[in-house]
Amino acid sequence: MIEGLNEYVQKSSTVWIREDGKDIKVKDWIIPVWEEQREDWDAVILGVPLSRSSISASAASEFPKAFRKAWELFTTYYFDEHVDFRDYKVGDLGDVKMHYTNILQCHDNIEHAMQHIQHNYPNSFYVSIGGDHSITAPLVRSIQSNNENKSIGIVQLDTHLDLRDLSQGPTNGTPIRQLVEGNVVKGENVYNIGLHGFYNAPSLIEAAHKHKVNMISLKQLRKKGIASVIHDVMEQLSNKVDIVYLTVDMDVLDITYAPGVPASTPGGMRTDELFDILFEMGKYPIVRAMDFVCIDPNRDNQVQSTVKATTYAFLTALASRYIHKMKK
Amino acid sequence: MIEGLNEYVQKSSTVWIREDGKDIKVKDWIIPVWEEQREDWDAVILGVPLSRSSISASAASEFPKAFRKAWELFTTYYFDEHVDFRDYKVGDLGDVKMHYTNILQCHDNIEHAMQHIQHNYPNSFYVSIGGDHSITAPLVRSIQSNNENKSIGIVQLDTHLDLRDLSQGPTNGTPIRQLVEGNVVKGENVYNIGLHGFYNAPSLIEAAHKHKVNMISLKQLRKKGIASVIHDVMEQLSNKVDIVYLTVDMDVLDITYAPGVPASTPGGMRTDELFDILFEMGKYPIVRAMDFVCIDPNRDNQVQSTVKATTYAFLTALASRYIHKMKK
Amino acid sequence: MIEGLNEYVQKSSTVWIREDGKDIKVKDWIIPVWEEQREDWDAVILGVPLSRSSISASAASEFPKAFRKAWELFTTYYFDEHVDFRDYKVGDLGDVKMHYTNILQCHDNIEHAMQHIQHNYPNSFYVSIGGDHSITAPLVRSIQSNNENKSIGIVQLDTHLDLRDLSQGPTNGTPIRQLVEGNVVKGENVYNIGLHGFYNAPSLIEAAHKHKVNMISLKQLRKKGIASVIHDVMEQLSNKVDIVYLTVDMDVLDITYAPGVPASTPGGMRTDELFDILFEMGKYPIVRAMDFVCIDPNRDNQVQSTVKATTYAFLTALASRYIHKMKK
Amino acid sequence: MIEGLNEYVQKSSTVWIREDGKDIKVKDWIIPVWEEQREDWDAVILGVPLSRSSISASAASEFPKAFRKAWELFTTYYFDEHVDFRDYKVGDLGDVKMHYTNILQCHDNIEHAMQHIQHNYPNSFYVSIGGDHSITAPLVRSIQSNNENKSIGIVQLDTHLDLRDLSQGPTNGTPIRQLVEGNVVKGENVYNIGLHGFYNAPSLIEAAHKHKVNMISLKQLRKKGIASVIHDVMEQLSNKVDIVYLTVDMDVLDITYAPGVPASTPGGMRTDELFDILFEMGKYPIVRAMDFVCIDPNRDNQVQSTVKATTYAFLTALASRYIHKMKK
Amino acid sequence: MIEGLNEYVQKSSTVWIREDGKDIKVKDWIIPVWEEQREDWDAVILGVPLSRSSISASAASEFPKAFRKAWELFTTYYFDEHVDFRDYKVGDLGDVKMHYTNILQCHDNIEHAMQHIQHNYPNSFYVSIGGDHSITAPLVRSIQSNNENKSIGIVQLDTHLDLRDLSQGPTNGTPIRQLVEGNVVKGENVYNIGLHGFYNAPSLIEAAHKHKVNMISLKQLRKKGIASVIHDVMEQLSNKVDIVYLTVDMDVLDITYAPGVPASTPGGMRTDELFDILFEMGKYPIVRAMDFVCIDPNRDNQVQSTVKATTYAFLTALASRYIHKMKK
Amino acid sequence: MIEGLNEYVQKSSTVWIREDGKDIKVKDWIIPVWEEQREDWDAVILGVPLSRSSISASAASEFPKAFRKAWELFTTYYFDEHVDFRDYKVGDLGDVKMHYTNILQCHDNIEHAMQHIQHNYPNSFYVSIGGDHSITAPLVRSIQSNNENKSIGIVQLDTHLDLRDLSQGPTNGTPIRQLVEGNVVKGENVYNIGLHGFYNAPSLIEAAHKHKVNMISLKQLRKKGIASVIHDVMEQLSNKVDIVYLTVDMDVLDITYAPGVPASTPGGMRTDELFDILFEMGKYPIVRAMDFVCIDPNRDNQVQSTVKATTYAFLTALASRYIHKMKK
C-alpha cells in the first residue's frame, strides 16, 4: 500500500487475504493450489458448478461460490473434540469449467478434471462441491477408471434413491442407476442411508431391489444408533470393496434445517445427526472421496442456514479425518 | 390434441391429468368423486375453506387449494413401512360452499355437507381440510346426529384447549366448548395432547377441569412415549365411546417446524413426533374422521414447509390405516 | 356431484371450471384447444417451459404454470378502452415437451411444435410464453420456414442486444445473433427498443453495428414518445418485411417493477410504458407472433408483481388487437 | 421514576410518551381524546379494525395498529409547503369494537360509533382508518342520517367500482352498491377516480352506467392533469351536494408502490400522484370525512412501504386542510 | 371515553391497557415501576438497548421494544407445571439511556443504572434485556461493587467464549475477558455451557485455559443430561461463590431455532433444551440476576420465532423461580 | 494451474481475476492501487465501512463489500451516450480501518486516510463509499485542510437536512451541522436537493435558515427540470467556491426504489431522476469528490435493487466525467 496510508486503510474485502498469526479462519486455511505448490495435500476441493442437469430448476451451480464465502465464518478449532486441525493441508482446485448448453460435455469435463486431479494428487482426499447430484456419476467413473483393479462402494446420504432410468439423460435423479448399470459400482455395494416418507416411487424401489442396493431408513438409523449403523456399513464395505465414495445429497435433511435444498422434505434428518454421521465416517481411510450436492443458495433463507450447515458438515468430516489420522 | 402436435406438445399444467402406469403421484391417486362413481371409498376428503371465523386474521381458507397443489410432490409408496398404499381408495369431495359474511351459515353448510357425505359414503373415513378450528364443531355435530345412539370421543392435538366461551360466537377458540356444552361430546371423552407453555389462560384450565377434559402435556407425552400414550388413550376411549374423531390443530407444532400456522409457538411438537402419533392412531378403526386445521399458506415460508408437513402427516395417517386394514 | 350435496359443496379449486354467465375471468375465456375444436382461434398460446438454456440459473421454466394461474385475477373487460374483448377467441395449446438434458432437442421440439401449430391454425396470432430468450430463435425460424417467400422483421423490447456469439451454444444471450447470422432475419429488420445503462459489452455493440441492428434507447423512446417511435418503427418495417415478430424480454423493465426477472436492472422501463408500447403494437396486423420471456416466478416477490405485470401486458396486447380488428 | 435512576433510565418504549419542546413527532401531536378533553378537534381519527368482511382473506384489521406505530417516523412539518401544521388539532378516538363472528353487528357498531362521534364533535373532520372497504357503507350511512336534509357525494380513489350485488352480504366489494341502492348517495354524485386495466367485470360496468356513477380512468387523470380533474370534480359536486365523503381504497396504487394491499395491481397510480390528489382535495371544506382502507400490514414488504405511504397520504390530506384553512 | 361512545369504541391499541379480571396476559402482569410504587418486586426488568458495540452490525438495540410487544401473546399460566405465577411481582424499569456515539458512556450508564436499581430494589431478581453481550460486563461489575465482600460466579449459555482481548474496546466478544481480567469474577467461577463447532479460535481456548474458565460442550450436556449438568454446576458454584449471574447469549441456539440472532450457527441447542436449562436454574435462589442478549428482531424471520422463543425462555425462568419459592 | 488441468478447471470465483480482451466488466476495470502503481488515477475509490455512528441501527458498514461484488454485473460501455469509458482510470484504495468501539477514532481514521490519499493522488476524483452519512464531515474537513486557501461548497442529495445538534456526538444526522458550525463550509454554499414530506423537524428548518443553507425541494426540482436546476446551482457555486463536494444520501430515493436504505421514504426521488442529476453533475470539473452513503445491503430486498441502483448511479457519474473530459 501507499506510504503513510497503511496505517488507516486496509485492502478491500473482495481480495483474498491470508492472515498470519495465531488464529486463522477457514478462508485462510484452505489455499488455492495455484498459490502454494505441493503434492501432499491432505485434501483437495473441487467446485462443480453444474445444475442445468437438475430435473427441477435449481441454482445449485451457485453453491461453490456461496460455500467459499462462508469460509470466513469458521475457525480451524473443532470444539467438540478439542482439536485444531490447521495442520491438515487442504488445497482449493478451483471450479470445473462448464458449457452453457452441452450438458454431456459438462459431465465429461468433470470426469476429466477428476482424472487429472488424481494424477496430480494421488494420495489426497477428494472433496467435490456441487452442483446437483448428476455430478456424482462422472466423479465416481473417474475414480474407477483411475483404479482399474479396485472395486468401489458408495455410502449415500439421501432422501431419494436416484435410480431413475436414463430416458431423459443423466440428471440429478439418475447417478446411482448410471453407476450400477454402467458396471462402475455394484448395487450391493451401495448403501443409501436416510430414506423415508413418500418420495420414492415403486419403480425405483423395484430397481433398488433388482440391483440389491442397500436401503437404511432414517427410522432404522435412529433406532439402531448412528455409530452402530455406520460401523456395520463400513465393516461390510471394507470386506467387499477397496475404495468408498461418500455422497451427501443435502436433501437428506429435514426441510426445516435445509430450506435451501429444492428437494428437502419434512420428516428428514436433523443437522446434528448428519454431523454425527460425518464424524463417524471420518474414521475410515478407505473413504477416498466425498461430495456435497443439491444446495441452492438462492433458495436458502435470509440467514443462509443451509449454506452454513453444509460448511459445518464439510468441516466435521475433515476434522474427523485429521483426528483419526493423528491417532495412528 | 391436434394431429402431429402431440409429439411435441403436452397439456398445460393447470389441467388435471391422471397419469397411468407404474408410478403415480398423490395427485393422480386421489380422485374427484364426480369423475369416478363409487360408494366404497376408503376415505373421502372435504375442503373446508373457512377462516373468517378465526379470532386473529388468517388465510387458512386458502389451505385446501395449497394442500391439493402439494399432492404432486408425493408418491403412494411409504418408505418407512415399505408399502404402496395406492389400493386405498380416496375420493376428493371438493370444497364446502361458503358465504362471504354470514359465518353461521358457513358452519351450517359444513354440517349439512358432512350429513350428505355420511349418507352417501357410510363406511368411509372422513377427512376434512380446514380452514380454522371452528369447523370441528359442526363436523362433529354432524357425525353425532348421524349416529344417534352412539357416543363420540375426541383426540385433539393442540397447543390450546379451545374452550373459550361463546360470547363472541363460534370461533377457532371455541369448538371443544361448543361440543361439550352442547352435549355432543362429554368432556371426559376429550383427550387433548400436546399442551405446553404459556398459551392457555387460567379460565380455560378451569373450564377443562370442570368438564373433565383430559389434558396430556407435550412433556408427559415425551416422558411416557408416543406409542404408550396413544395406546392408553385409545384403550380408555374404546371403553367409553363408539366413535373417535381426531382433530389436528397444526399449532401443536413448534413454530420452527410450522411457521405457516398463525398460532404456532416455541416449545411445541416436532414434525417427526406428529407423524409418529398419526401412525399410531391409524391402528384404530374406531377413529372414523379426522381434520387438519389452522394452516395459513400465505403465512408459510417461501419453501412452504408447513403445507408440505401437513400433507406428510395426512399421508402417514392414511398409509397407517391401509397397513392396519391389510393386516386383518 | 352427489345428490343433495351440490347445495353445500363445490368442485375443488384445482379443477378447471368454466363459469358461464355474464362475467368471466381470463381463466374461463382462454380455452384448451383439446376441449373446444375450432380452427379460427384469433390467438393461440403456447407454453415453452425451457430455461436450462439460460446463462445464469433461472426457473423461467416455471413461468407458463404461474402465468396460467394468474388468469383467475383478470376479467375480459379492458377499462382503459371501455371494451369487453371476450369475443376474441383464444386457445391454449399446452406446453412444448422438453428433454431434461438435451437442450438442442428442446429447441427442435419448439420449432416443430410451432410448425404444426401454423399448419393447424394458419390465421391465428401466435403467442409463446417462455422460458428464457433462447426460445425466440427456433420460434422465428419456424415461422420463416413456414413462410418461405416472405421476409420477417423483429421488434425486440429488451435491455440487452442478445447478440452473443455461439461458442457456448444457443442460450438466452444469442437468439438475435442466431437469427441474423442464420439468415432468418436481416439485422436491419431488427428493432431493439429499451436499451440503456451498462449492460451491453462493446463487442455486442460492434456486432449490432456490423449487422445494422436498429437500436433505440429508453431515453430516445421517452424523448420522442412511445406512439411516435412505434409508428416510425412499424412504418419502416412495413416497407421492408411481410411479417413482424414481437419479442418481449421482460428484463426491459426496471428492477423495481420486475424483481422476478433475473436480469432486470435499475434504469429500466416502467410497466405503464410497456403497456403503452404493447397497445400501440396491437394496431399492426403485420405482427403475427409474440413472446414473453425470462420471467422467473420463484424469484418474484411475495405478491408476484412480475407475474401479474406480464399477464397485464399480454392482455393489453390482445385487447388492442381486438379493438383494432373491430375498427375495420 | 425512582430517585437517582432518572438520569440513566427512561420509560420503556411501549408506553405513550408525549415529548414537549420544539420538535414533535406525529405520535406526540395526535392525542387520545380520553387524555385531552376538547370539543373543537380539527380532525378526529377512528380505527375500524374489521376485515373478516373482505372477500379474499385479509389482515387489514391489523392496520390501525400499524398505522399508529408509523406515527413515530413523521414530524408535523410539511416541507413541500414549508408549513408546520401542529396547530391543527387531531384527536385519536380509539378503535371501533368488533364482534368476532357477527359481521353485521360490526357494521352496526361502526355506524353507531360514527353517530356518537358526530354528536360529540360536530365540526371536526372525520378520518376513519380501515379495515376493508366494507366499512365505508356504514360510515356514510351514519353521516347521512346525521345530516337528514343534506345530500352527500363521494370521491372514490379505487381500481374497482365496488358495485357488486349483495347476494353475499356487505363485503369490501359492495359499499358503493349499498349506498346507491340504499338511496344514501345518488350514483351521479359518486366520482370514481383511478380505474384501469382488467379488474372490473362487465356487470359492474353496467351497474355503474345504470346508476350513473362517474368513472374517471387513470389514463384520463394523467392526460388532463390532477389539479384540473380534481377541480372539475369538486366544482360539479359543489353544485350538487352539501357534503363530500372521500374514500381512498389503497388498491388504487400500483402493486409496486403498494405491495401490502391484497388487491393492488400493475398499471395503478404512483404514490406521488395520490399525494397530489389528496393535497388538492384539502382545498375543499365541503369534504367532511375521509377513510383509508384495504391495507394489510402483514402482507406488506419488510420495510413496510405501504404502511408508510398511507401515513404520508394521510398527513398530506391534513396538512393541506390546515394550509387552506389558514389562508382564509 | 366520551358518553355513549364507550359502548362501541375502545382505546386504541398502542395505549397501555391493564385488563382486570380472571385472565391476564403477560403485558398486563408486568407493571411499569412508575405506575405502581413498591419495593418488593420479585423481579425487575431493565431494557438495555445497546448494540453499536457489536462487532458485526446488529439491531439488537431494537430487542427490548420487540420483547415487550411479544408480551401480549403469553398468559401467566405455565401449563407444563400447572401453575399460575401471576403472584410473582414483576416491575418494568424502562430502558437505560444510551448515547449515540460514546459507547463507553453507554456502558457507564448501564453500570450506574444497575447500581441505583440494586439500591432501590435490594431483594429483587434483576433481569436485563439486551442489547448485545457487551452489556454483561457493566451489569456484573455493578453487582460486584454493590456486594463488596461477596464473590460472583457466572453461568453462561453461549456458543462463544467471549474472551477476546480488549484492543478494540469492550464489544460483544469481550465481556468475560473484561470481568476475569478486571478481577470481578474469577475464571474458575465461570461456567460456559453450550460450546460446539468451529466458532472459537485457538487463542480464545488458550485464554479460557489460562483463566480456568469451565467449558461444557453441547455434546457433553446432552450426554450427561441437563438436570445433572445444571445440578453439578450449581453445586460447585454454591461452594465457591455467594452470587450467581446467569447470562444467556441466544446465539447458543441452533440457527434453525434462532434465525434472528446474527451469530447463531448450525449445530446449536434446541429451544426445548434451553427452556429445560432455565427451568433447572430457577431452583437456585443464589442466582440473583440474568440477562438475554444478542437478539436482533430486524433479522428475525417473518413470524418472529426468535423473539417469541426468548420470551418463552424468560417466562420459564421466572415461573420456575416462583414455583421453587412457593415450595419453601 | 496444474499441467493438463487447465483445460477443465478454472480458478475459483472468490479470487480476483482480471480478464483481458475486448469486453471487460467493471470488476476488471477498477484496479486495486496495490496491484498497479500509478499516480494519475482519474478517480480513486475509498471504502468507508462505518455505521455504528448511525442513529438507528444500520449495516451500512457492509455496503463497500456489497458494492464491489456488484461490479461483476456491469460493463464499461454506457449505452445512453454510446461511449466506452474504460480509458478513465479508476483505482480501488481499499477500506478505511475502523475501531469497534471508538467512533471518534473511526472519524479520525477517515480524515487521515483522505489526507494521505490527496497527497498521493493530488489530481484524482475522490469517491467515498459509506457507511453512514457521518463520514461526510471528516471527508470534507480533510479536503478543506488540504486546500487551505480554497473554499468548498456542497451539493447534497438528501431527504434530510442533516443539521442536528451535536449533543449526541457526530452521527449520520449531523454532518452538515458539523461542517457549517466548524467553519469548514459556509451554509450558503450548501445546496440540499430532494427535500420533501414530513421528515425534517422545525428546529432543523430553523437551523437551515439561520445558516442560509439552500433548500431545493423535490417538487421544485421536478417543476423546473433537472438540467436547469443543476445548471443554476453549479453556476452559483462556481462563483462562490473553488471546490464542490457532492454527497449522495441514498435516502433521497423513494422507498420503492431504495428499500435497502433504512431512512428511505415514500414521496422520494425515482432512480432515473438521480441518474440524470449525476450525469449533469459530471459536466463540472469543480466537483472534486463524491460520496454515496446510507445503503444497508442486509436490509435490501432479495434482488438487491438498492445495491445495484447505487452502482448504476456511481457509473453514471464517472461515465459523465469521462465524456465531458473527452469533449475538451
Automatic annotation (TrEMBL), chains A, B, C, D, E, F:
Pfam families for this protein: Arginase (PF00491)
Annotated binding of Mn(2+), by residue: H133, D158, H160, D162, D249, D251
Cofactor: Mn(2+)
Molecular function GO terms recorded: agmatinase activity; metal ion binding
Manner of cofactor binding, per the entry note: Binds 2 manganese ions per subunit.
InterPro entries for the chain: Ureohydrolase, Ureohydrolase_dom_sf
The protein's name: Formimidoylglutamase
Species assigned in the record: Lysinibacillus telephonicus
UniProt lineage: Bacteria, Bacillati, Bacillota, Bacilli, Bacillales
